[in-house]
């Protein structure tokens, strides 16, 4: 038994169907249509110039944004440095203030004295110094809604204020 191809062997010629006639193609007409659909050389040049101009514009805008971001980063670094210097100076100032030196200066140079026991007056306040708040007042749904609206109004006023 031979291993042959079992597919039918057709003749690959196109058969004409009855009732249909072959239409002759006018080559000149086809070439004219192709020419109409073809983009002219001048329009291709214009497309290239428009594309190049838009690319140049986008690159220029990208450069401007990058320069602005680099200036911002430099200013933020300067701000952080100045902030650290300020905190260091405030710490040094707090360390330099010595209450015993201030008391010696006040008593020696300015002639001040500490108050005597009969000069001290204690005041008794009748009101309590305690505030009571319940979780319902703080975390209630009404307070959340009111807080949302008040923050929204505050943000709108802040946005439109000069």
From TrEMBL:
The keyword Transmembrane applies. The chain crosses the membrane at residues 41-63. Keywords: Membrane, Transmembrane, Transmembrane helix. It comes from the Bacteria. This is Cell division protein FtsL.
